[in-house]
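Design job #97: recover the sequence.
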C-alpha cells in the first residue's frame, strides 16, 4: 500500500506492508475512540515526477500492466510527468486539504513508484542546496 500524506507544506510518500483495509479500519477505530471526525471516500491524487528521471519509461510500462483505473502516467510538459492514482482520501472532512491518500497496486508497481519518488526527492534536495 502507498500512503501519501498531504500537509500545507507539500506531501510525503510512504510504502506500507499493511493492507489498505487493515489500515483504514485501524484509522477509523482510532478516530472513533478519540472522538475525532473522519471522512473516508474514493478519490484521486496526482503528483509530478521529473520527465528525465531514470526509470520513468519503465513506470509507464508497469502502469499499463496495472488496472488502468488505478494509475496513469501522463506527460505534463517537457520537464515533468504527472502520476495520477485512484484510491481513498482520509481526512477530517471531505472539504479538508490536509489528509492522507492511500492506494493499493501490485507490490512491484508500488515499490517502483516509491523508489522513483525517493530519487526525485534526492535530486530536488541536491538542486536546492
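Job complete. Output follows.
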Amino acid at each position: 500500500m502507498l500512503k501519501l500524506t498531504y500537509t500545507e507544506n507539500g506531501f510525503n510518500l510512504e510504502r506500507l506492508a499493511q493492507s489498505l483495509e487493515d489500515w483504514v479500519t485501524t484509522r477509523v477505530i482510532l478516530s472513533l475512540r478519540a472522538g475525532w471526525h473522519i471522512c473516508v471516500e474514493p478519490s484521486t491524487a496526482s503528483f509530478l515526477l521529473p520527465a528525465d528521471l531514470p526509470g520513468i519509461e519503465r513506470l509507464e510500462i508497469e502502469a499499463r500492466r496495472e488496472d488502468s483505473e488505478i494509475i496513469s502516467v501522463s506527460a505534463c510538459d517537457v520537464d515533468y510527468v504527472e502520476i495520477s492514482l485512484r484510491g481513498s482520501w482520509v481526512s477530517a472532512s471531505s472539504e479538508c486539504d490536509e489528509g492522507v491518500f492511500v492506494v493499493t497496486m501490485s507490490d512491484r508497481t508500488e515499490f517502483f513508484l516509491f523508489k522513483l519518488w525517493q530519487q526525485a526527492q534526492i535530486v530536488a534536495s541536491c538542486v536546492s542546496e
